[in-house]
């Protein structure tokens, strides 16, 4: 089956099911240009979909981001922000004025892997393929998608210090919430196929 075939199945489901239509109504208004461009919203979506592990969502939003002008490296940069944040455990997170992320995880207790993890996180978040404010907005949205309030707040504040508009962060959060619901929506493809 092709991605387009799946898109067509979901469109039919939206026409037939008030549940799928309700998801589309939730989603529809959050993709237009605003404080974040539509392209950047789809980059946020790719990163948030890494949290939900929704392969359909990742591919769908990567395709749209590409169509809107994003390069492969930009889409990968967004995805790897999630990979970096996956390594941050429940310890304290500090983002310095220089942008360096410092974390201490009680579970790692100064083990060599903690140093390696901090190097990985700072390499990913310091990589300039995406503008700093967008990297931080993506990280804040991923924190929301992961339901990690400390993570979200640390990157929210760092984004504001870096010059991000509050509205851009709000738009990123809306995308993250749509993606959380969208993972279930995408998995209804299996239900639609079972009844085809």
Brief summary:
With 196 residues, the protein is mainly alpha-helical. The chain has helices spanning 3-16, 18-28, 38-52, 55-67, 72-86, 112-126, 132-145, 149-161, 166-194; strands at residues 92-95, 101-104. The protein is globular and about 55 Å long.
Distance between the termini: 14 Å
Given this structure, which CATH class is correct?
Mainly Alpha
Tell me the total number of β-strands: 2
CATH superfamily: AhpD-like
Would you tell me the overall average pLDDT?
A: 92
In CATH, the topology is named AhpD-like
Helicity range:
over 70%
Overall tally of domains = 1
Structural Rg: 17 Å
Describe the structure.
- This protein is mostly helical and 196 residues long.
- The chain has one domain: Up-down Bundle (AhpD-like), CATH 1.20.1290.10.
- The protein is built from 9 helices and 2 strands.
- A two-stranded antiparallel sheet has the order 1-2.
- A hairpin with a 5-residue loop joins strand 1 (92-95) and strand 2.
- Helix 1 (3-16) packs across helix 2 (18-28).
- It comes from Acerihabitans arboris.
- GO terms for molecular function: peroxiredoxin activity.
- Residues 21-84 form the Carboxymuconolactone decarboxylase-like domain.
